[in-house]
Amino acid sequence: MTYQYSKEEILAKASDLAGKLSNSDQIRFYKQAESKISANQKVQRLVEQIKKYQKESVNLQHFGKAEAYHQNEAMIDKLQAELDAIPVVQEFKQSQEDVNDFLQLMAKLVSSRVMDNKQ
Fold first, then answer.
1. Quick check: 76 and 58 in contact, CB under 8 A?
2. What CATH architecture does domain 39-103 belong to?
3. Is the CB of residue 99 less than 8 Å from the CB of residue 27?
4. pLDDT 10s digits, 29-42
5. The whole model's pTM is what?
6. Contact (CB, 8 A) for 43 and 83
7. Which domain of life is it from (predicted)?
């Protein structure tokens, strides 16, 4: 005989698992990197400039201003390269990849267990 879990029991277990995952090394490192990014004024300035140029690019493309659009895109690429060269940004991007890989692994494990128990 197999036990049938209620929706509430499953949600409670999922909440418990989420709490445990949020205390993992990968998630803690990600949160620290995110805090550093948020506190870094140079990073925030570059992000705002990139957003501004991206909005301009949408408008330029919409109005068929090809040359201005390409100049704008070149500026975005330059600013993005400057942003990507900052060590705290590199650290943040690596932590994002690590967390993504970790969460994908967790999702595969859960899916695998669900399918194994289904049979």
1. no
2. Up-down Bundle (1.20)
3. yes
4. 999 999 999 999 99
5. 0.77
6. yes
7. Bacteria
